[in-house]
Amino acid sequence: MRYSKLSLLEMLHIGAIIFLNLYVYTLIPPLSENMSGLGNKFQHPLYLFIWSLSIATFFLIHTKELMQSYNYPSKWGKIFLYISTILMVVCILLPYKPFQFPLLSKWHVRLAMFATVIYILVFLHFLCYQTLHTFNINISYLKFYFVFIFLELLLYILNGGVSTLLETSFALIMSLFLLYLQHK
User: Fold this and answer.
1) pTM above 0.85?
2) Integer Cα distance of 15 and 79 in angstroms
């Protein structure tokens, strides 16, 4: 198996994502707060916006490139990928201040969860289609994805909700997995 090289732009983008996801641990507690708290309670809204935008664009660009390189035929899958990306960015624009803006705060949480679930399902459909229908992707990658999502759900349940660790681990592992699949 021959691996293709990463472009300079890809290296900069993944480097920024790694930095943003690890540096956040110096700003907020990883298990008792979530990224929304970073923007509101800890007064780093620009950091939160840059983090969200970098993750959303990375997921969109690299998932779309994977879908094109593997000739993924689902038009709906591609449409839902765009919807998920838009929702990821829009939810950050809504303030999470439950006491000042209770309705907007609820929609912030709903959109963030909905965007993540849509993305997980779109990518799962892509992997299942490529693994079980066209046999373009090895089944071990599908197994890895199932274990990864299971561990993320377990972290969600054990922590009693969304935490910084959950959000950053999902963003980091998914970004690296996308790059690996794209350049394997």
Assistant:
1) yes
2) 28
